[in-house]
Design goal:
- The protein is of the alpha+beta class.
- It has helices spanning about 20, 25-40, 40-55, 60-65, 70-85, 95-110, 115-140, 145-180, 185-195, 200-210, 235-245, 270-280, 295-310, 325-330, 330-345, 350-365, 370-380, 380-395, 405-415, and strands spanning about 215-225, 250-255, 255-260, 280-285, 290, 315-320.
- Helices cover about 60% and strands about 10% of the residues.
């Protein structure tokens, strides 16, 4: 069995007895009666498989302990396929399908950077666990099934060996493919997606095969501007996401890391949490789109989201979290006029006084106009807030009690960067 980012293939999948053994009536009856008992032990076999991989294979440890319940679910599902493959009426095409699946697993593990030796050891482990379960069942109830076990053993392990060969074949084919795809070609294909070629089925098919990234289904675009010192804001995101079983392709555009991520059935908050653990600067994320044709638009949204985040702050945000800021950033002339008309003479005050009043106004709006709650946010006295509020209303010509004034103030503060959740700075307890 192999496992990793979420796709696991049992070593004995398709390990039904070969024709000569299968045709013996006593073996057929024995196997038909044995499979239901094995299925009752499916959860225990899954636990044992996962535990051994976690303890003995570092390459698999992160995938199995990363908190993704689908990893264990995939282990369980594929062990079940292995057990059912022992039935004597397995179709003739079963072995071919098993080999194709094993090659696909080998290819995926190569793309994830797992060592081939670890992949093969894990694959053989599945056969061992299946064999141990068979032996344990044969020993129960004083049953004398040793002869029948020997009949099945050779077939089971020959199937496992064929599976290992197919895994190695898929792994090496992926290595050859990846070695032939240079950074320039990867960037060219990514640029094609970002520039709108996702609507060309031939291009999407070729790009998906070359990049080993599924470009059908739910996709997300991520943009992470470089930090001030020019270093990437995300630490090796492709490898980190692969360990979670998520494929992606990354490149650079306009001094920012840009990635197209296959979201699949995952929830967007999962991806945001993973990116947050990697982020060393602002990271903008698009909404999920349904296929490659929408990637170009998603890229623009992710770029806009990144642009609205405070520079130098390690933070991941989706475009949906930054819609007001995005509207202002897309219309700088309107944003400048909105700030000037709404804040009036306040923005002409000396810097120290201006900053105190802007932070106070932001706290008042966050506190729904309550001076007491605003004072708690600012760590100052309520009377101090009241004094500053009178000053704000005087220099702006607007009242806190006017709903339209509050709306304009909120938008103007976004335009000045003083109303970004989590970014408020304490101000001194004075007017």
């Amino acid at each position: 069995m192999t496992s990793g980012g979420g796709r696991v293939q049992t070593a004995a999948s398709g390990s039904g007895p070969e024709a000569g053994v299968e045709e013996r009536p006593d073996v057929r009856r024995w196997l038909a009666g044995l499979v239901p008992s094995l299925l009752e032990r499916l959860d225990a076999m899954t636990d044992r498989m996962a535990g051994i991989l976690v303890e003995t294979e570092p390459a698999y440890r992160a995938a199995l302990t990363g908190g993704d319940p689908r990893v264990r679910a995939t282990l369980r599902r594929n062990i079940e396929v292995s057990i059912r493959g022992l039935l004597p009426d397995v179709p003739a095409t079963y072995h071919q399908t098993h080999a194709e699946g094993a090659r696909a697993v080998g290819s995926q593990r190569a793309a994830q950077g797992f060592p081939l030796e670890a992949v093969l050891r894990a694959y053989r482990l599945g056969g061992q666990i299946t064999w141990e379960a068979l032996v344990a069942l044969s020993r129960e109830g004083d049953r004398q099934d040793d002869a029948l076990l020997l009949e099945v053993a050779g077939s089971l392990w020959r199937t496992n060996d064929r599976g290992c060969s197919a895994v190695a074949e898929g792994y090496r084919a992926e290595e050859r493919r990846r070695a032939g795809l240079g950074e320039a070609e990867r960037q060219r294909l990514l640029d094609g997606l970002l520039d709108g070629r996702g609507g060309d089925p031939a291009f999407v098919r070729a790009a998906g095969e070359a990049l080993a990234v599924p470009l059908r289904g739910r996709l997300v675009v991520v943009v992470a501007p470089a930090r001030d010192d020019g270093t990437p804001a995300l630490a090796d995101p492709a490898a980190a996401l692969l360990k979670r079983g998520t494929r992606s392709v990354w490149g650079v555009r306009a001094q920012a890391q840009v990635g197209v991520v296959t979201l699949g059935a995952r929830r967007l908050p999962e991806l945001l949490a993973w990116l947050g653990a990697l982020a060393g600067g602002p990271v903008g994320v698009s909404a999920a789109v349904e296929d490659a044709a929408a990637v170009a638009g998603a890229y623009r949204l992710a770029e806009t989201a990144a642009r609205t985040l405070p520079a130098g702050v390690a933070r991941v945000a989706t475009i949906d979290e930054r819609l007001p800021e995005a509207l202002l950033s897309e219309s700088p002339e309107i944003a400048d006029r909105l700030v000037g008309q709404t804040l009036g003479r306040l923005i002409e005050l000396p810097e120290d006084e201006r900053e105190v009043l802007l932070e106070t106004l932001s706290a008042l709006l966050d506190a729904d106009g309550s001076p007491t709650r605003a004072a708690d946010l600012l760590y100052c006295h309520r009377n101090t807030v009241m004094h500053r509020l009178r000053r704000i209303e005087s220099v702006t010509g607007r009242k806190l009690t006017d709903p339209r004034s509050r709306l304009l103030w909120q938008l103007a503060l976004l335009g000045t960067g003083h109303h970004d959740a989590g970014q408020r700075r304490p101000v001194r307890d004075s007017a």
